[in-house]
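Lab meeting notes turned into a lecture example. A postdoc, R.K., suggested we walk through two folding results consecutively so the class can see how the record format repeats. The first protein's sequence and structure tokens come next.
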Amino acid sequence: MKIVLRLMMISMLFGLFAKVSYAQGEAAVPFLLLAPDSRAGGIGESGSGLADNSAAIFWNPAGIAFLTGTEVSITHSNWLPQFNLDLFYDYLTYRQYFEELSGSITGSITYMNFGEFVRTGEADPTPIGTFRSFDAALTVGYATKLSTDWGLGFNFRLIHSRLSDQPTAEEQGSGVATSVSFDIATMWRPEKFVLPLIDEDIGGKFSLGINLSNLGPKIYYIDKAQADPIPTNFRLGFAYKVIDDEFNSLIYTLDFSKLLVHRDSTASDEFYKAIFTAWADESFKNELRDIVTSMGLEYWYGTPGDFLFALRTGFFYEDPSYGNRKFLTFGAGIRYDIYGFDFSYITTSVFKGGENHPLSDTLRFTVLIGWGAVPESTRGLPRGI
């Protein structure tokens, strides 16, 4: 239908800035790739190696295995502000540790609003009604420690995409699609790890995370013959606490991510094939260029369990031939008692041609409440609690 096609074009435009632009839009529902929270948004959208709050549901659910207590957070952001469109997303998270389960139960709701649209007839441009278009996902998960140093996390996700609410004239399909996906992740956060050559123990200061997300069947709006893969994604992340004293903490984060979708002009692989074929559909050099790199620094000042203040900055880089997103990020946050607030800001203006980039001036705001956790965990990289 025409109205669905128009909305799909908007979705593809949105996807252009969500790592699915290469190969004429490789995956559907690209909102599943958006960095959803302000804290990771402030450190260059790098979070799979840190993953020490409830937003780890997205970045690396295994990181929650090292946390105790309960946390609830909500994030809001107006998306692609340069377009002046009614695009925004909200992200709600929850985690709670259960001693009898030897792990944490987690959950999140992601909502991407595409705005209100006017419905017209097949040949008559006269408005006959309005409708709203959105994408949404409900995620539930579980995280547990396999040992003192290793964590494991799983997510199950229900995906619902509503580009339109009813067919137009005699055209088929309503513009509504539903699918499911799951994530599997692991985290290594050693209590003792001696670096060779320099003989330095960085235990409790270092973590490594791997997350394979959005594993699931294809999604379709009209018929199965027009189904598209969802954005299966691989993340490898590192975090290292450079400074850690009574009042100061400085953490460096580094993430590498790659979209695991393989398709040609006629068909695409199912996810269980694409997680292998997507690594070898081009030359090794180009496969490396297809990997997105992001990094950041997070500085905390204050006493854990009392008042904490954070400053953040980061850098996000995507090869010019594979999306060409480049931006700097900045952010800040506070923690007082059980309450917290974070915000982050994206700027592309420092790069050539970036002054009017749709991502520039993107802001995220997060409010959180966390209680029952060991206080030291509020400054990153908890030590096997």
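The second example is placed directly after the first for contrast:
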Amino acid sequence: MIRYISVIMVLVVGLGMLHYYGFIWYNSIFAIGYDVKGLDVSHHQGAIDWEAVKEEGKFDFVYIKATEGKDFTDNRFANNWMEARKQRFRTGAYHFFSMQSNGKDQAEHFKRIVPVVSDSLPPVIDVEIALYHDKKKVLDSLTTMIKELKKTYQKEPILYVTYDTYHTYIKDSMAGYQIWIRDVFKYPSIDKEKWMMWQYHNRGHVNGIETFVDINVFKGNHLDLIKLK
């Protein structure tokens, strides 16, 4: 009996380690039904071999971190943008939103860094701020940034959210905006019609990328991705 329990414990620990290091990912079961998958990357992934990523043949789009706040620029953005487009990925840029500066200044910073390209994906505003901010100030700043980006890129920005930021700031006040939800443990618990992208994996292993990388699904089909505005 003791031997049996020991074997079970070794298996459990072994599976746990494989999951921790991303070699197996239980959440992938829920993502099987989605045909369109993509990555989001930043300087944290280091130098990426985009040709190797393309050759893997599993991903259709990539979002690349461009900016944060009013003055931080990701030092890998320009190269990632150029090389990912060279490999014919649908590319989009994202901005890490901050309450240390206003929405207008953050939008201007993003526009200085991210090219206006007609076939790019809509800009993304990553809303992962703390939950103690004044809601009205958050919404005013976000709304200003959204309007400025839409005016320049002619596309409706997407809001990347956690459950905390979604329920605290977004759900009842910005219901009309497209949502990219993060849930790396299970299928999203917000209504399916309320999200368009889902980050289901944050420890992905992808050829050409030496670190863990986030993996996402797009709710529509390949044609929907092409038409996304």
